[in-house]
Amino acid sequence: MPCLPPVIRVLYRHMSKLQQWKTTSGSAQATEQLAENMGRALRGGEVIELVSDLGGGKTTFVRGLVRGMGSEDKVASPTFTVSKMYQAGKLEVHHFDFYRLQEAGIIANELDEVAGDPQTVVVVEWADVVQHVLPVERLTITIRQTPEGDRELTLDYPDSLAYVLEAVL
Q1: pTM of the model
Q2: 53, 145 in Cβ contact below 8 A?
Q3: Which candidate, 55, 73, 56, places its Cα nearest to that of 64?
Q4: What is the pLDDT of residues 73-87, one digit of tens each?
């Protein structure tokens, strides 16, 4: 993608052709299993944006994703540390959480450096302050609680990342 200002980059993403898939998870275990299956399909270089309210299941999702990639590392929310790194075989998972930041500052530079690295999978929570550095070619997963207490997961993805969804379809 050409180097565009943040507002134009977001508009460019909305103009890009995205596919969408929705599913419902009835438990934390089911969410982890879905993410674990997706994690097995990751090759490196992917960027995943997680969108949800507090307590929505983002860390649960990352736990399954990291396990599916072959890591035995203990996954915890990076809310207070902003980022965590997990080793998954030959790949690294960089997990960012921008919840506490009004501005991303130097952490945006760190994110920009690892996004798209073929040896790294990047997962970003609360990404509003870093939209300008997120690549257009990313998987966005929105998790929302249903009135019944389940989680509805909506996955928006470009054709280039369709292989990640093939692991769960």
Answers
A1: 0.85
A2: yes
A3: 73
A4: 999 887 666 789 999
**Helices (H), strands (E): how many in the chain?**
5, 7
Structure tokens at 145: 């609680």
Of the candidates 51, 63, 71, 85, the one whose C-alpha atom is nearest the C-alpha of residue 153 is 51
Domains for the chain: give ranges and CATH numbers: 6-166 (3.40.50.300)
Three-state SS for 67? helix
Q: Is 117 exposed, middle or buried (0-12, 13-18, 19+ CB in 10 A)?
A: middle
The count of other CB atoms within 10 Å of the CB of residue 108 is 18
Is 34 exposed, middle or buried (CB count within 10 Å of its CB: 0-12, 13-18, 19+)? buried
In the three-class reduction of DSSP (H, G, I as helix; E, B as strand; rest coil), residue 73 is classed as coil
pLDDT at 101: 58
- Residue among 151, 154, 131, 134 at smallest CA distance from 142: 154
- Strand ranges inside 14-164, DSSP E: 18-25, 47-51, 83-88, 91-97, 120-125, 139-145, 151-158
CB 61 within 8 A of CB 75: no
